[in-house]
Amino acid sequence: WATPLILEVLGREWLDQGWCELSFRRPTYPGEQIGMAVEGGPETATIAITGPDGDVRIAGDLGRGIAPWLDDVLLKTPMRDPEPAMEVHPRLTHEVAPVGRQLAVLGRTEDPGEVREYALKKQRSEDPIFVGERPRLHPGWLVNRPTSTLHHSFDYGPAIHVRTHLQIFEPVYAGEPLITTATFRETYEKKGNHYGAYDCTTYSQDGRELIRQRHTTIYEVAKRNAS
What we know:
By secondary structure, the chain is α+β, with helices and mostly antiparallel strands.
């Protein structure tokens, strides 16, 4: 939702090579009136999305170029050949979480029509860069690609996305083959919720690193007693 504001502050260069670190502190719900603020520029900025109660729902930092935390935080997983989809996926639990191991490699070409529809309907964007003849993948789409990557290895859900680290190295376009490798970094429990963090690296078909990112999610939500 905040992409137009981000581009206004950091410029379209952010989409060519840029980064963000976002915390999803509280859920947002359909129909809510939210406030968005992106401050700073032209090299770095902060973002805050607030709910109608004034509480911060999403917050973080953004910038052009290479993130200062890139090599300290994100693990680059080497490129490998894509693996076919499994007929049956094992259930992801705390006991079987593959900490330190690589996930199945996801190979997928994002359909230009679906990418345009996502930008138009989900992001309400008519920006030609996302809905034109050769659409780029919207930042929201990039942030969610790790979900597809984890589902390529495991069945899980419902899930709650809690944190993202994203580094864009080059523009990413629909209609071009993409290969995503990933390493599951850690799992932990907090208040009955089971969290997982895994690092994904997305390559072009010819081996150029396009994106590196960490996705932290609650893959097993705490069971609450009905009252």
